[in-house]
Amino acid sequence: MKTRDNPSDIDDKRRQRVAPYPVVTSLRACACLCLLAAGHSTSTAQATPIAAMSTACGTGCRQVIDYRSLHSPLVFSRVSTRSGAADDNLPRSWRHRYEVRLTREGTDRIVFDQLGNRYRFSARPDGSYRSQNRAGGTLELLQDHYHWTDGQRRTYEFRGSYPTRITDADGQSLSLEYRHGRLQSISDDFNEKIVLDHLPGNSTRVILPDGRRFEYPDQACQPRPIAAGDDPPESCDTARHPANGFDRVQTGPGVFLLDARPASCQSYFVEYYGTERGTRIEAGIALLPPYSSMTATIRSFPIIDFIDGSELVVVRSRDLASSSFNDPASPQALYQRLLRDARQVHSGFLEPLATDGFVSASELGRVTRITHAAGQSVSLHLLIRHGMASTGHWQQIVQARTELAERYGIRLQVVIIP
Q1: pLDDT tens digits for 75-104?
Q2: How many structural domains does the chain have?
Q3: Which backbone phi and psi does 400 adopt, to 5 degrees?
């Protein structure tokens, strides 16, 4: 899972250093990030960029407000969190405050707020939604768009999974615009705008309304290796807690089942969101056959996740319940996504391997090196949740399987998890 996903996929991959959320404190995980849900204050002077207001927000945590408008809720703030002193050897990474997402599980809707907190809303017979957490606020479906009002009476209007308008309790609002699934600008009612320019190398340039600009790394920090004596990652006791009906799922050629679940024995697609989900899935499947018999690459190694003799394995997980894969206006979204994955494998790994004869990376004293050799093959493993693939999705998978093999020589495998 080594390339950044389109956020609209509600999806995940480990390699492109996108900070996971919510905050992770496990030994295998890196020092991960919390998010700052900063409001606006008309009594505070406009800040200058780069640590304009930098304070501690807990052990290892640092919050920065780079910009705050004098007359609107237009704010740019970010938070970095480290879990302990040992993380001082790792570079800080940042996430900004507009990372709110809406996803679904069956008839339920789930909102992830700026801090990574998850709020579940259950559908009532009349079409309204009931929050399962008093702190979750309210969720309404108005004119085909969801509106979530948080505990601070701030309302987020969603288009698909992304907030496109945020309205404060006083009626002032912000508009959010996206390009290729990534946030590009935040503007207020006075036509002031903050622009985000996503740069190669996983950093973001922020251009403030007065023309000032700065850059910050938006990648996740690197993981600490498991030290001797560390406990392995927690996992579900699947023998004691079988997934309902999972053992009766019928599969065809190029598809296999894998009962990979987190310690809660719920689904990874329910417990976690975005990049953290990808990190958690990868750690979990590494303990299970067939991946447990493979060699895992280090995190900084491009594209390839596992080495199985002459077969090189790339893992991608996709939330097929995401609106981006179910939009009537984009009926081939999954097929196109798989083609992009294959192009990334080709340009990011296969071409350098053929040109240089090897690809190598080192990290914290560990090295992964793959040398070009006859008989090597690449497999793309598409991890999806049981019951989420529609007939249309399967048709796109079959189409992509043929295309990937003919264009790039890549074999597409589907892995179904609970």
Answers
A1: 998 866 544 444 444 455 566 888 888 887
A2: 2
A3: -65, -35
Tokens of 4: 């950044």
Digit-coded pLDDT (tens) for 307-346: 999 999 999 999 998 888 988 889 999 999 999 999 999 9
265 part of a folded domain = yes
**Confidence at residue 83, expressed as pLDDT on a 0 to 100 scale:** 41
Residue 224: closest CA among 94, 82, 90, 91: 90
Considering the domain architecture, whether residues 154 and 52 belong to the same structural domain is answered as yes
Q: How far apart are CA 182 and CA 11, in angstroms?
A: 13
Q: What is the dihedral of CA 257, 160, 32, 34, to 10 degrees?
A: -140
Question: Taking the CA of residue 44 as centre, how many other CA atoms within 13 Å lie in the half-sphere pointing to its CB?
Answer: 18
Cα(171)–Cα(380) distance, integer angstroms: 48
**371 and 289 share a domain?**
yes
- Within this chain, do residues 35 and 180 fall inside the same structural domain, yes or no? yes
- Contact in structure between 48 and 311 (CB atoms under 8 Å): no
Do 152 and 263 reside in the same domain of the chain? no
Domain boundary pick from 174, 197, 217? 217
Q: Which two tokens stand for residue 33?
A: 């990030």
Give the range of the structural domain holding residue 96, as residue numbers without chain letter.
Answer: 18-217
* Cα atoms in the 13 Å half-sphere on the side-chain side of 168: 16
Query: Which residue, of 197, 217, 237, is where some domain finishes?
Result: 217
pTM: 0.51
CATH of the domain at 360: 3.40.1350.110
- Is residue 224 in some structural domain? no
Between CA 115 and CA 79 the distance in angstroms is 10
Axis-axis angle for helices 391-408, 333-345 (nearest 10): 30
Residue 329, C-beta contacts closer than 8 angstroms, at least 6 positions apart? none
How buried is 408 (Cβ within 10 angstroms: 0-12 exposed, 13-18 middle, 19+ buried)? Answer: middle
